[in-house]
Amino acid sequence: MKIGAVTSFVYTLFIVKKGRMTFSLDHKVYNLHYLNVLQILPNSLFELKSFSQDCEVVALSATMEFCDGLDLKWGSYDSLLALFHSYSKVLTLPGDLLNGLLSNIEQIGKLVSQNEERVFTDQILRSYFSIIIYELSNIRWKPECNNQIGNRKDELALRFVNLVEKNYRNRKDVQFYADKLSVSRTHLTRTLKEVFFKSPKKIIEDKIITEAKLLLTKSDHNIQSVFDRLSFDTHAEFTRFFKNSTGFSPSQYRSTVSFC
Prior knowledge:
Elements: E1 6-8, E2 11-18, E3 21-25, E4 28-32, E5 36-40, E6 44-51, E7 56-62, H1 64-68, H2 77-85, E8 90-92, H3 95-113, H4 121-140, H5 148-167, H6 174-180, H7 185-195, H8 200-216, H9 223-229, H10 235-246, H11 250-255
Antiparallel strand pairs: 1-6, 2-5, 2-7, 3-4, 3-6, 5-8
């Protein structure tokens, strides 16, 4: 079974309880099986390609506005996205964690389906969702990130991410961010590679590509308006940048998705 590619505008988790399934996410194919978790970020292009007859999956979705109110300890939803953009989109759960996650998702489902309004329903929903995010993040973090040095590196990395969120359309040069953070470019690069396993240049490029993909799915943005918005000087420069990152020209990418 194959379902056409669509663009996601919410944060979504797929947890495989049984069987196997194959997804394409931003044109990269993932084969999932029991205990795998697939994370789909907003503005991602995804396609369900196939699944086994015995496949059982639990899905959980949340809007960006909902995630913004989670009040996670590392900061804003932009930081949350940075964590998930910078790691593999697929996690393998420890066996003893599956039932706990499924229980939290079940509680979220019950609260959402309730007809009666309760004063603290929204807060309870965010608490359950935050627990899920924390549990998944615990799988990612290296043990050394719990010490004081690790925490300082994490703080610098997340400050960098938040700066990128505010400036990526106009500033693509790593030195600008290093100067804003009062650190050397070498120190910034080394820190980001330790925390996110990516260079600052790659993180900036990933953010630009994510925004470009989103704009290319919208019918009210032609390709010129997209590269103008992202501060590229010419159509050729934008096309070269986009194709180097995705393997597709902007027009080829646009032809694979439906306009929103």
